[in-house]
Amino acid sequence: MSTRPVSPGNTSPASSPAISRNWNRRAATLRKPSQAKPHGCRSAPFGPQCAEGGFGRNQACGGGCADGGRRAGCPNRCFGARRGCHAAGTSGTAGTGPAEILAQAQSASHAIAHIEFNAIDLACDAVQRFPDMPAGFYTDWISVATDEARHFRLLQNRLAAMGYAYGDFAAHDGLWEMALRTRQDCLARMALVPRLLEARGLDVTPGMIAKLAQTGDGESVAVLEIILREEVGHVAIGTRWFNFCCQARGCDPESTFLELLKDVGRGALRGPYNAEARRLAGFTSGEMHGITVLANNAG
């Protein structure tokens, strides 16, 4: 089975310059030789990340903007931009008036659409990238890609109703950067994409739902409730195949997962956590305790 990334022409749910302009760069980067080595049971397979979040590029980033996504003009070019960035994209306290709440909801909807679009790519990439896995692995990730494409369509429709389109807001590259770091190791990919970055969505989506509810946008609330419910299953698929990889290598899943997280900044780990959703997705009480400790101790 080829390890070439899946062609965007075969997976894209929409065609526009905003969606397609990064594909040549992504494909070329994925084809570059990597010095990373598959994860065993002790050392993480990649180097340092953003000091606070692990998602972005700015070493001083705060990781986690109040509006749920990086807005154009935010001073730090990273996922979520700086903590306290308000909807207009400058540092400060997030606005709480009706106009500010609406702007935050619009930006949050775009941020989630961007995540869902990247998730289509990542699910398809896992199918083609990691050979010699059981048939169920490929069935699972094709199913995830199908769900993510539907989620993206739902969010596209909601953005259109708000007067926007995908690509109208700045967007982070965190999921794809993690895909690059884990491209040679299925165990690390399962740990650090579905079980870290996508699990983060389980934590933050309820807050986004509450923000949209304040605007009276019941249709967008309904869309996010569908996405949250189905993303629990997607993270659970990541858990299942992470555990499979650990068993195949003779590694303890809990200690291996927490060891991998030691190279991740606080922004990717901090709470509050959606404890019930994470439990349903397969996180153990020991993992959740370990995540909390790592988040509290991270620089």
What does this structure look like?
With 299 residues, the protein is mostly helical. It has a domain at 96-297: Ferritin (Up-down Bundle). The chain is built from 11 helices and no strands. It has helices at 8-11, 17-20, 23-31, 98-129, 135-161, 174-181, 186-214, 218-249, 253-261, 275-280, 285-297. Helix 4 runs antiparallel to helix 7, helix 6 packs antiparallel against helix 7 and helix 9 packs parallel to helix 11. The radius of gyration is 18 Å and the shape is globular. The model is unreliable at 1-94 (pLDDT under 50).
Oligomeric nature of the chains: single chain
Task: Tell me the β content.
Answer: under 5%
Helix tally?
11
CATH level 1 class label of one domain: Mainly Alpha
**SSE class:** mainly alpha
Q: Please tell me how large the radius of gyration is.
A: 18 Å
For the largest beta-sheet, the strand count, sense and barrel status come to: none
Report helical residue fraction: 55-70%
Mean pLDDT: 75
Q: What is the CATH topology of one domain?
A: Ferritin
CATH architecture classification of one domain: Up-down Bundle
Low confidence ranges = 1-94
The total of beta strands comes to 0
Order of helices and strands: HHHHHHHHHHH
Principal-axes geometry comes out as globular
Distance between the termini: 41 Å
